[in-house]
TrEMBL record:
Gene Ontology biological process terms from the UniProt entry: polysaccharide biosynthetic process
Entry similarity comment: Belongs to the DegT/DnrJ/EryC1 family.
Pfam families (UniProt xref): DegT_DnrJ_EryC1
Active site: K215
Entry superkingdom: Bacteria
InterPro entries, sorted: DegT/StrS_aminotransferase (IPR000653), LegC-like (IPR026385), PyrdxlP-dep_Trfase (IPR015424), PyrdxlP-dep_Trfase_major (IPR015421), PyrdxlP-dep_Trfase_small (IPR015422)
Name of this chain's protein: 4-keto-6-deoxy-N-Acetyl-D-hexosaminyl-(Lipid carrier) aminotransferase
Length: 384
């Protein structure tokens, strides 16, 4: 199994060298656009590429307003802030996620409540969230959802589209309406993924994208908030640009703001990458198809997109039969220069989030013991 997999991956990438988990490719206008910012001297937070990238993402995702930020964590931070989440508030999220989801809550003085995932897309499980809320929450006289034991306000649902696979958004949105919770999507991994034809990150009040170096599209570092409400989006842009009031020369700021605007230098890279998004997605889908064929009929289950959605297949993943076979696969592949990784350590096992409230996490534990991410960069073949 291991040697066959290693050979298979080397064949996909036509390479005997080290094969990374996910590396960016720059084969279009990346260099030209970045050099354009140098020639123009507009390398910082003012410049045409930032607005152009926001417009490109509005067009692509259908979001009424997109606001560019310095990274995905910052995008999460300011979106949660705009949603009114602050000190002492509780937010239902996944234990199986990248740490940034929880760090953004921590920066606001808010706390995660860890809810189990469903076993198909590994997103926040609506049934598990409903069960936890039914047991531990109530709506007060003002209609605010509260944790019965502590009286703390529960403000939002924060699902994450794991490896790019869309979570069960209709069910989560219904739960949000029932319990008066904002739905905010951590769509950092899911640019190019659609839920029943709608782009992930556009079903909640806010959706957050990341353009870190290992994501589908990179700006070096960068992020984006997709906003459903135009006015809220405009306020968010104001917040991310130090809340400066437009004036020909005076420095007037009308509330505490963030210095979170994406620099033009980074946006130039992003615009060129977005021009190639469709080609990269097609390439990644073809690679996922090859992995699927490779694992078919074995006792290793390749993680496929859920029936209701279309995945960008950001990170390919396989479920091993058990923890021992997972460890053996990680050992063999990494020793041979084929980079594979286990899924993130569950959030409630990290020291800073070990005290957080949580429901039953048996699906998360099950997945944590078995998941392995496989090399997922676009391959050379289609010139993506
Ligand atoms: C990448 C990622 C982020 C944001 O990461 P940045 O590096 O800050 O852009 C947030 N959440 C998840 C789940 C991610 O994978």
């Amino acid at each position: 199994m291991h040697n066959q997999l290693i050979e298979f991956v080397r064949d996909c990438y036509q390479s005997q060298d080290f094969i990374p988990l996910h590396a960016p490719t720059f084969k279009g206008n990346e260099k030209a656009y970045v050099l354009e910012t140098l020639d123009s001297t507009f390398v910082s937070s003012v410049g045409a590429f930032v607005g152009r990238m926001e417009e490109m993402l509005q067009d692509y995702t259908g979001a009424p307003k997109a606001v560019a930020t310095v990274n995905g964590t910052a995008a999460l931070h300011c979106a949660l802030y705009q949603a009114g989440i602050g000190p002492g508030d509780l937010v239902l999220t996944q234990a199986l996620t990248f740490v940034a989801t929880c760090n953004a809550l921590h920066q606001l003085g808010a706390e995660p409540v860890f809810i189990d995932i469903e076993p198909v897309a590994f997103g926040l499980c609506p049934k598990a969230a409903q069960a936890w809320l039914a047991e531990h929450a109530e709506l007060d006289d003002q209609g605010q959802c509260r944790h019965k034991a502590s009286g703390k306000a529960i403000k939002a649902l924060l699902p994450m589209h794991t490896f790019g696979h869309p979570a069960q958004l209709d069910e989560l949105a219904a739960l949000g309406r029932q319990w008066h919770l904002s739905l905010i999507e951590d769509a950092a991994e899911s640019l190019g993924s659609f839920y029943k034809g709608r782009h992930t990150g556009t079903l909640g009040r806010f959706g957050v994208l990341s353009f870190n170096g290992n994501k589908v599209v990179t700006t070096g570092g960068g992020g984006m908030v997709l906003c459903q409400d135009q006015k809220e989006g405009e306020h968010l842009k104001h917040l991310t640009t130090t809340a400066k009031v437009p004036h020909p020369f005076e420095f007037v700021h009308d509330e505490p703001g963030f210095n979170y605007r994406m620099p033009n230098l980074n946006a130039a890279l992003g615009c060129a990458q977005l021009e190639r998004l469709d080609a990269m997605l097609a390439n990644k889908r073809a690679l996922a198809g090859r992995y699927q064929g490779f694992f078919a009929g074995s006792d290793y289950r390749f993680v496929e997109e859920p029936g209701y959605g279309r995945s960008n297949y950001w990170l390919n993943a396989v479920l091993c039969p058990d923890a021992q076979s997972r460890d053996a696969l990680l050992q063999a592949t990494n020793a041979s220069g084929v980079m594979t990784r286990p899924v993130w350590r569950l959030m409630h096992k990290l020291p800073m989030y070990s005290q957080a409230l949580r429901g039953d996490l048996s699906q998360s534990e099950w997945a944590e013991a078995r998941l392995v991410n496989l090399p997922s960069s676009p391959t050379e073949a289609s010139h993506a």
